[in-house]
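A reminder from the course coordinator: this example appears on the midterm review sheet, so study it carefully.

Given structure:
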């Protein structure tokens, strides 16, 4: 029998891969993590300091238990590492009162029973005057929302996994994975390892490790982030300025408070552009992106100086239906995919990492996830 190098390998130690490694390290001391650069590196979708966590959202109600579990696991990771990762500052969802976004969001929220309040423009002016609402707007407030520290979370999870016995290989890009009669062969350059199971969690780089049948259902896109300086920084601290998402038919923006006491994240949403190579995403914003971003900030958040003081761009893997790929292919024994989060996966990274680790190691299976399984794309 061929000698195994380990029970499990996790390829990609970013948003979800780091959490899968951490969770797996509680189940086995024979887990390896492979990262093409270093955990938390700024070229991956982890970059940009912060991501939004929220319990109020629009879409599939089946996501709600995942959000509840993820919130608990963020607390467990904080307790294990001593790091502050999730700051509860509340969250606002803003849009036209009778528009598609707010209607869908309230429908999902009421179905889930998530705590929330609805504010009129007058109530918003009194509570959160930083936002300039239109006359027909309303805001839905989520008291359980907050802001996640991305690079801190990823590095904390990897360090915790190493403390539990996990082996981490940095600067080790994976060229191929191949199942054989003994297990899964993982290759990087001239080196190779064999594992009983492999989790693929490499975000925008996952497509090259997918079969053609699954690649056709995914696309790597370039996402931008932008930051602004506040005229009165004291009005944009986490204590006074919740995270926000604001959507109309013509314009979309989301943002987070000034966690560094200086810059406020306010960035356009829904503007991802296809990019063939995740390793060479154009970092600079186009004149059109700059113009639309500053125009939107001028209208939505007049307390910000409408000049971009920091910007960046990152690759992310999108699926056809904007739901991630979570699970094994129908004919695969040892390869497990947890990728394709379509720009919205960090809030549930702990929950999806937990599922991936337990299912890949055959410790537990989870029901109700058919809408995430790769078989929905008729993969082979």
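Designed residues:
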């Amino acid at each position: 029998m061929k000698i195994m190098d380990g029970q499990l390998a996790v390829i990609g130690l970013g948003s979800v891969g780091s959490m899968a490694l951490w969770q797996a390290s509680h189940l086995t001391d024979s887990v390896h993590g492979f990262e093409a650069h270093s955990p938390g590196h700024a070229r991956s979708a982890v970059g940009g300091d912060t991501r939004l966590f929220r319990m109020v959202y629009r879409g599939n109600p089946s996501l709600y238990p995942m959000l509840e579990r993820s919130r608990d696991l963020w607390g467990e990771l904080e307790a294990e590492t001593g790091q502050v990762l999730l700051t509860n500052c509340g969250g606002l969802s803003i849009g036209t009162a009778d528009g598609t976004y707010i209607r869908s969001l309230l429908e999902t929220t009421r179905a889930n029973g998530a705590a929330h309040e609805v504010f009129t423009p007058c109530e918003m002016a009194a509570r959160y005057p930083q936002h300039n609402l239109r006359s027909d707007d309303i805001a839905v407030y989520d008291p359980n929302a907050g802001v996640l520290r991305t690079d801190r979370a990823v590095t904390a999870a990897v360090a915790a996994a190493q403390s539990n016995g996990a082996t981490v290989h940095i600067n080790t890009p994976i060229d191929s994975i191949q199942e054989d009669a003994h297990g899964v062969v993982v290759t990087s350059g001239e080196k190779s390892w064999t594992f009983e199971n492999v989790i693929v969690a490499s975000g925008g780089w996952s497509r090259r490790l997918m079969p053609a049948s699954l690649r056709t259902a995914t696309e790597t896109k370039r996402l931008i982030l932008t930051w602004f300086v506040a005229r009165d920084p004291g009005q944009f601290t986490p204590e006074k300025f919740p995270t926000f998402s604001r959507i109309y038919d013509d314009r979309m923006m989301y943002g987070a408070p000034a966690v560094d006491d200086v810059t406020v994240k306010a960035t356009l949403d829904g503007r991802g552009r296809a990019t063939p190579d995740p390793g060479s995403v154009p970092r600079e914003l186009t004149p059109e992106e700059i113009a639309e971003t500053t125009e939107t900030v001028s209208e939505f958040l007049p307390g910000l100086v409408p000049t971009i003081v920091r910007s960046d761009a990152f690759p992310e893997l999108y699926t056809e239906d904007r739901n991630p790929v979570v699970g094994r292919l129908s004919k695969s024994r040892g390869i497990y995919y947890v990728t394709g989060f379509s720009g919205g996966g960090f809030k549930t990274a702990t929950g999806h990492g937990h599922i991936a680790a337990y299912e890949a190691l055959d410790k537990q299976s989870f029901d109700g996830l058919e809408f995430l399984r790769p078989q929905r794309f008729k993969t082979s």
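The helical segments are 17-24, 64-81, 100-112, 121-127, 150-163, 212-215, 287-300, 349-360. DSSP finds eight helices and 20 strands in the chain.
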